Amino acid sequence: MPGDKSGIDDLAEKIYLFIQGKCLWQFFPREWDRKANIEGIMGMAAELIVNPKLPQPETLVDRYYYVEAKLLVSDIKKEFPQVLELGEDEKRELMERVKQKLLEVMVLKSINPELRLSSY
Amino acid sequence: MPFVLFKCDEAIPEREKHCYVKAPGEDVHEYLPAANIATIPGSLTERGCSYCGAKLVIGGAIKDCIQMIHGPVGCAYNTWHTKRYLSDNDNFQLKHVCSTDMKEVHIVYGGMKRLEKAIKEAFEAYPNIKRMIVYLTCPTALIGDDIDRVAKKVMRELGDVDIFCVSCPGFAGVSQSKGHHEFNMEWMRGKVGEYEPEITSPYTVNLIGEYNIQGDGFVFEDYMRRMGIQVIGHFTGNGSYDMLRGMHRAKLNVVICARSAGYIANELKRRYGIPRLDIDPWGFEYVAEGIRKIGAFFGIEDRAEKLIAEETAKWKPKLDWYRKRLAGKKICIWTGGPRLWHWVKAFEDELGMRVVAMSCKFGHPDDFEKAISRGSEGTIYIDDGNELEFFEVIEMVKPDLIYTGPRVGDLVKKLHIPYLNGHGEHNGPYMGFEGFVNMARDMYNAIYSPLWELAKEDIRNDEWMEELEEEDGGEESGADFSGMESGEVGAEG
Amino acid sequence: MGVVLVEKPREGVINPMYNCQPCGAQYVCIGIKDCIPLVHGGQGCCTFVRLLFAQHYKENFSIASTSLHEDAAVFGGMKKIEEAVKVLVRRHPNLRVIPIITTCSTETIGDDVEGVIRKLKRTFLEKEFPDREVYLIPIHTPSYSGSHVKGYDTAMFSLVAYLAEKSEPNGKVNVFTGWMNPGDIREIKHILAEMGVDYILLMDIEGFDSPIMPDRSGFATGNTTVEDIRDTANSTASIVLCKYEGFKAAEFLEKRFGVPAVVTPTPIGIRNTDMFLKNLRRITGRRIPDSLVEERGRAIDAMVDLAHMFLADKRVAIYGDPDLVIGLAQFCVECEMKPVLLLFGDDASKHYAKDERLVELESKVEYDIEVVMNADFWELERRIKDGLKLDLILGHSKGRYVSIDYGIPMVRVGFPTFDRAGLWRYPVVGYNGAIWLAETIANTIFEDMERRKDREWILNVW
Ligand code: SF4
Ligand code: SF4
Q1: Does B181 touch chain C (CB under 8 A)?
Q2: How many contacts does B have with C, using Cβ atoms within 8 A?
Q3: Contact (CB, 8 A) for C80 and C112
Q4: Residues B87-103: what's their mean pLDDT?
Q5: CB-hemisphere CA count at 13 Å for B3?
Q6: Is residue A112 within 8 angstroms of chain B, CB to CB?
Q7: Cβ-proximal residues to C116 (8 Å cutoff; 6+ apart), any chain
Q8: CA distance A28 to A13
Q9: What Rg do the C-alpha atoms of chain C give, in angstroms?
Q10: Which residues in chain B are closer than 8 Å to C23, comparing Cβ atoms?
Q11: Ramachandran bin of B55, using left for φ above 0, alpha for ψ from -120 to 50, beta for the remaining angles
Q12: A11 in a structural domain
């Protein structure tokens, strides 16, 4: 139900699982690039979900985040149409939760022993 | 049910942490098989050596350079005629391999002189080839030969040649993986940035971690061409040595095999700010998604959509035909590493199959993060699976098909299970839209082969006679054998 | 006119013709029943060879590795041998033999394999498995001398020297086949059976040609047992079919146990098969039966049908294992072909090139036979580039591109022959081998004539 906290939690969990099953960018091999990717792409996705007209960024790396975010957002809208009913703030919050969950599972609590190696 | 200890592993309980069965609701931060750690000696591992990773996987696919293996002859002999990576250079890379053929005196006194001579001889033998890769192997690493020094000297003397050296003795690391890594990092350090490629399009990419097995890379090169995108470095299938030195000029790195070549993509990002886009090249949806992303990156979405539409129209009906017949079939993927996660969802979502067990030779923990996140519950995930474990897994999951290498494939055929070559492919290409249809076709042909029925049948079993009698029961039959003792049929005089 | 010896004029190898010692040793050891060879070195030295065997046979062979990693390379790999042996013995209850095959790296490090074996016996086998005999047999095969040929010879010697034990005379003949295919083994068994000779085969690899069985029990295995090898000390004599692959073991049995060693020319072609039968006759006193005389006649008949019309004067290049190359050269001469180029691919080539069989051949021919020692495929390719005329290549599949790129018909013989189906099922030895060779060569030449439209009409009637 839109506006309802547990509804957003629930949706965030579903989107997180969707991303887990699909997106390769969350699995980059080291903490630094994994974090950068998740933050960059989810940050961009939060922007795009409220402002689909967001112009393409200038730098190549930002443009990459933009591309991943754009496809992700379009997937989310297709798979979870209830997102469309959310208000702007709720959308942002939803994406923030997904991002936090991804960071938690893929970085913070990760038991991948190679994640924190300084070299490859 | 997180980790499992197979019965055959009771003597090596440390294998437990490598074998995982996914339970409902489990996350990759709860259980992750140990991977990329030392092999248990004597376990009948499937793993190769790091030289294999450097030469056979990566360097050997480059089409216009001489492969010089510094070591005794076997390391060269054994990595020749074992791959199916093609090139548009008359497959030079498949046809030739050089060795310094180290002998005892060189082991005692050092092999650098020998290497120098062998390099010069090879350049003389192939006057049109001016590039070379020199690989260090176990014995030559142990005696401390400095291949870099020799290479520099020859380059100075000959003037028009370029040599790349990679130190990848088989004992370094625990598998092929270390050799991938060495090659990546050394190429980045020593070669990238040395060459200025001619730029022919505003849209430029490197294709990274794609080895053109059975023309897989040709499929992708074609897609890029149709979108007006220039491929600068194809790392390394059908790759050209010099273009690979110009990788720094691309605007985007499209990474296919993140395991064997993620390193160089990361380094290109770090050093040159070129973003890294990982894609899955198997499966319609994945391929379409990858192409969409590349198109979106360059702002040429229309071209991407046109390509996807054309290809889908051409191939989708064929895929659907196979999907109907493959749905519900159980499959194992026992390959190197990345194909586990590349394939699992494509097989499950697009073909309706069930991937019941996956095993990798040289995956790292991040390969398992991907495989487990994408894979199903109840599926078995194994790192560095060995022969006895395979037998046990087969009993547990009773697969209809196994994607693996030829040798394990030759083993499982005896158990009446078809295999498909998960490395060199049966009849590729496997990538792209047409490739996925080829895969589905190969799976269909393998699973539905009439031979498996025949293999199962024990013709000594007399049930067929009873059936015959039953059939004949009411009717008049032509001949009457009913009085014949079963023992008389075919019994020896 | 005669045999002209030349040495490869380069230091390095371009497109190798021969493999390394451990490969030969592994081939010998997979011929033993209930045996898993353990290759002491990096994983590649074992995994690649397993792949090679699978390429050739389309079968899997279990070969273990000590998985030498960096630490072991620095501090020695003896611990790895210990671990590996324990794992193998514990996990494979039927395992009886573990040959421990060294490689370039572990020989360079200088691991004391014998020492580890002693220790393992004392501290592990006797304690944990007092009722089970598992043989740990060291085989030293650093590949920086010799090749798979020497590796084969060394491994056979090491196994026999380790296991052979004098007891009662058994009235058998030890047959050291050398590196052969299951088809050859089948043919040799056939000849021995026809002669009524009781034998011990080293190694009995007929089972490498293994079926898919309804009960899923068919797996490729060697079938020479520990008992067989032990019993070699009690045989009437040893007969060695490949001088460079097996003689050392036979010689050991002669010196140590007084079992006479008879080296017979590799039985390829009529004359050499005759010699094999005559040697068996001499050793065992058994008469050569009519059945074999008939087979012989059939083989000669097959060759007569083909020789003067199609095979005569064909210029042939031959490479591969030394005994095979020499035997094929002799066969070519029997069929009126000209073996103008022979290539041996390792640093022991000097011996092969001075082999008495070649010396004898020299006296028979009225043209030059060039013998390249220490050769690689570049020696073959370069000669063709420089204008050498060849009508046929005989050799294994690693030379396939020379045939393909220069359009020279080639008959795959020996090991490996991965680019043709099932060749290992057919013999090249014995009278039946002679038939197979002559007819396969002829058919290959016929196909080439048709492809080129070169007098293909001659085949309308002959
Ligand atoms: S190191 Fe020696 S034993 Fe190992 S593959 Fe190379 S040549 Fe063969
Ligand atoms: S010697 Fe080392 S590099 Fe050569 S095959 Fe063996 S393990 Fe690999």
Answers
A1: no
A2: 257
A3: no
A4: 97
A5: 15
A6: yes
A7: C78, C81, C82
A8: 21
A9: 23
A10: 74, 77-78
A11: alpha
A12: yes
What are the residues facing C175 on neighbouring strands? Answer: C201, C239
Handedness of CA C115, C121, C122, C125 (dihedral sign): positive
User: Tokens 């020989």 correspond to what residue?
Assistant: C107
How far is it, in rounded angstroms, from Cα B244 to Cα A6? 52
Residues 6+ apart with CB under 8 A from C274: C296
Flag whether A120 is in a domain: no
**Residue A115 domain-assigned?**
no
Q: Which tens digits make up the pLDDT trace of A24-72?
A: 999 999 999 999 999 999 999 999 999 999 999 999 999 999 999 999 9
- Rounded to the nearest angstrom, the distance between the alpha carbon of C411 and the centre of ligand 2 is 31
Q: Which residue do the tokens 């021919």 mark?
A: C365
Question: Into how many domains does chain A fold?
Answer: 1
Give residue C266's Cα distance to chain centre: 11
**Does C58 contact B406 at a Cβ distance shorter than 8 Å?**
yes
Q: List the chains bordering chain A where 3 or more Cβ pairs fall under 8 Å.
A: B
C158 vs C173: CA distance, rounded Å: 19
Q: Which tens digit of pLDDT belongs to each residue from B120-139?
A: 999 999 999 999 999 999 99
Type and span of the H or E element at B67? strand B66-70
What are C139-171's pLDDT values in tens digits? 999 988 899 999 999 999 999 999 999 999 999
The dotted CATH code for B50-173 is 3.40.50.1980
Q: Which two tokens stand for residue A89?
A: 């703030």
Q: Is the CB of B75 under 6 A from ligand 1?
A: yes
Alpha-carbon distances, residue B281 vs B181, B209, B376, B419, C394 (angstroms): 22, 11, 20, 21, 42
Distance from CA of B190 to the nearest CA of C (A): 24
Residue A95 counted as domain residue: yes
Give chain C's residues under pLDDT 50.
none
pTM: 0.96
**Neighbouring C-alpha atoms within 13 Å toward the C-beta of C326:** 25
Q: Which fold has domain B204-308?
A: Rossmann fold (3.40.50)
Distance in angstroms (rounded) separating the CA atoms of residues C269 and C311: 15
**Mean model confidence pLDDT for chain A:** 93
**Parallel, antiparallel, or unpaired: how do β-strands C338-343 and C315-319 relate?**
parallel
**Helical spans, DSSP H, in B191-247:** 216-226, 241-245
**Both structure tokens of B87:** 């090139």
State how far the Cα of C147 lies from the Cα of C104, in Å rounded to an integer: 12
ipTM, two decimals: 0.96
B225-268 tens-digit pLDDT: 999 999 999 999 999 999 999 999 999 999 999 999 999 999 99
Separation of alpha carbons B101 and B81, rounded Å = 18
Token duo for residue B16: 């437990």
Neighbours of chain B (3+ CB pairs under 8 A): A, C
pLDDT per residue as tens digits for the range C166-209: 999 999 999 999 999 999 999 999 999 999 999 999 999 999 99
β pairing state of B380-383 and B230-236: unpaired
Query: What would the two tokens of residue B346 be?
Result: 């494509």
Alpha carbon C379 to chain centroid distance?
Answer: 23
d(CA C197, CA B276): 71
In terms of residue numbers, what domain contains A64?
Answer: 5-109
Q: So where are chain B's domains? A: 50-173, 204-308, 465-492
What is the B180 CA–ligand 1 centroid distance (Å)? 20
